[in-house]
């Protein structure tokens, strides 16, 4: 976890953090790097042969203009199953959508229900069996991106108007339903339905003798 660090030179957040902790590794797993600043670029992470895996690098700032990037400075940087924007360097499994942290301004960097980082990591990159809170590192079969694992164990069904490939039971954003009623119809007792922001067409089905209608989501 690295936040609110200020560095004068380009993207040295990770390197400064490593020196203080004595961690001179070139690979970093399940880190959350937010709210940091570097004077000339790469406010969150600086490449130089570094590999980031299952990490969140978001909401960082930097000087030096867009050439250097605000979150990462692409100088031989590799990222796998990370959450940042824009995507630079080499790697696969990365996402650019905001990580949906609970309250980053207040110092709460846990993942909200519906965060694109939930179950979006790669289990082969895990370095510890617990997260930063000491909770199980894997919940739901796949590790989350970032320092904290969302501990929800209820099945979640997702809804998004821009879902690229709706596939029942809609249990991740890539296969999310495009209307709320489809997700509700798939859900079992105790399941949750999370809808992306948007205006959804009214509709409904009769379930146990009552009509359930879909509407808007904030």
The total strand number stands at 17
Largest sheet: 3 strands, parallel
Helix coverage percent of residues? Answer: under 10%
Low-pLDDT windows of residues: 1-25, 209-214
If helices are DSSP runs of H or I spanning 4 or more residues, what is the number of helices? 2
Give the termini distance in whole angstroms.
30 Å
Average pLDDT figure:
80
The portion of residues forming beta strands comes to 15-25%
Q: What does this protein structure show overall?
A:
The chain has 218 residues and is mostly beta strands. 7% of the residues lie in helices and 23% in strands. The protein is built from two helices and 17 strands. The strands form seven sheets. The chain has a three-stranded parallel sheet with strand order 1-4-8, covered by helices on one side. It has a three-stranded parallel sheet with strand order 2-5-9, with no helix packed on it. The two termini are 30 Å apart.
Question: How would you summarize the topology of this molecule?
Answer:
Blueprint: E1 2-3, E2 6-7, H1 13-21, E3 27-29, E4 32-34, E5 37-38, E6 45-46, E7 51-53, E8 56-58, E9 61-62, E10 72-73, E11 78-80, E12 101-103, E13 108-111, E14 156-159, H2 180-186, E15 192-195, E16 204-207, E17 210-213
Parallel strand pairs: 1-4, 2-5, 3-7, 4-8, 5-9, 6-10, 7-11, 14-15
Antiparallel strand pairs: 12-13, 16-17
Key structural traits:
218 residues, mainly beta, 2 domains, three-stranded parallel sheet, 2 helices, 17 strands, 23% strand, disordered N terminus
What would you say about this model in short?
This protein is mainly beta and 218 residues long. The chain contains two helices and 17 strands.
